[in-house]
Design a protein that fits this description.
The structure is a single chain. By secondary structure, the protein is an alpha/beta fold. It has one domain: Rossmann fold. About 45% of the residues lie in helices and about 10% in strands. It is built from eleven helices and eight strands. The protein starts with a helix and ends in a 6-residue tail after the last helix.
């Protein structure tokens, strides 16, 4: 597939009617999340929910979406992915205010940030990019599963990963409650761990809940706000490593839009996709079924306190 063929997907033309569907997009107040909401809003979904931390930014997103669809039912759910309690509370709010959920787009994330811990004591990139989304999925599973039993249901979970998963050769589970200092390029290596987890967790969701289509995607190399907060060294590394590869936010949203809305027979459960709709590259770690199973077991154990 050539670059031009890869981006021939046209959201305005190729996204079908979303009538009756309820959609939740995490990280919807900026970048890919905002563009995703804008494009989905044009196809008459029953409702769009989106998470974020900034209520002022959320209001701008709502106004933009309503310009595309004046009758759109759209709601902001305030949520901080640095806090598992905040994520759990947000999930419970969605459960209590909706009777169905057809598409969950796990779009929020951070990239190559300095060493830090989440408020719950997890390495920050793994905590935000994987564990927080895993908790949201776990909390919303009753609603997703109920929706999957409805006539003509097509429930999907789309997890935003990255080719950055290739930085990771495994996941060192006993380091995930530390800052996990990895020396040179440590920020990118920690990022790779979290993105590998996104790929492996989608595989496991497909195993445990085959009635839901769960995939991971690479959006492409995009100029978004993620790079703006990097250190000078990491920003330079990122710029040099992606020379000639950058695409617009509009193109960057296409792969997750495709994954969320393409015909069901065109998408394989548990698979990682590169833009647009192309089965993605793999590494030995991303194909390691034992590692995927261990990640599932570790995640279940860490989130046990939130079962109710």
């Amino acid at each position: 597939m050539t670059r031009s063929e890869s981006f021939s997907f046209n959201p305005a033309r190729d996204i079908p009617s979303l009538s009756g569907k309820v959609i939740l997009v995490t990280g919807g107040t900026a970048g890919l999340g905002t563009e995703t909401i804008f494009q989905l809003s044009k196809h008459t979904p029953q409702r769009i929910l989106f998470t974020g931390r900034n209520a002022a930014s959320a209001e701008k997103v709502i106004q933009s979406a309503k310009e595309a669809n004046a009758n759109l039912d759209i709601a902001f759910v305030q949520c901080d992915f640095n806090s598992l309690k905040s994520v759990h509370d947000a999930g419970k709010h969605v459960l209590s205010t909706n009777t169905r959920l057809d598409i969950l787009m796990c779009n929020a994330g951070i990239m190559a940030v300095p060493k830090a811990l989440t408020s719950d004591g997890y390495e920050v990139q793994f905590g935000v990019n994987h564990l927080a989304h895993a908790l949201l999925i776990k909390t919303l599973l009753p609603l997703l599963l109920r929706t999957s039993e409805l006539p003509s249901a097509d429930v999907r979970i789309i997890s935003s990963s990255s080719l950055g998963f290739a930085f990771a050769t495994s996941i060192v589970f006993d380091k995930l409650r530390t800052e996990h200092d990895m020396a040179v390029l440590g920020a990118f290596r920690r990022y790779g761990d979290s993105k590998l987890a996104n790929v492996l967790y989608a595989q496991q969701l497909a195993v445990h809940y085959p009635q839901i289509t769960s995939v991971s995607i690479h959006p492409g190399v995009i100029r978004t706000g993620l790079i703006d907060t990097l250190s000078t060294f990491n920003k330079c590394f990122c710029e040099l490593a992606t020379v000639g590869q950058k695409i617009s936010i509009q193109d960057g949203a296409k792969n997750q839009l495709w994954a969320a809305t393409c015909k069901k027979e065109k998408i394989q459960n548990g698979v990682f996709y590169e833009p647009v709709g192309k089965v993605g590259r793999t590494t030995s770690a991303s194909k390691d079924a034992k590692l995927a199973a261990k990640l599932w077991e570790w995640t279940e154990g860490e989130l046990k306190a939130f079962e109710s």
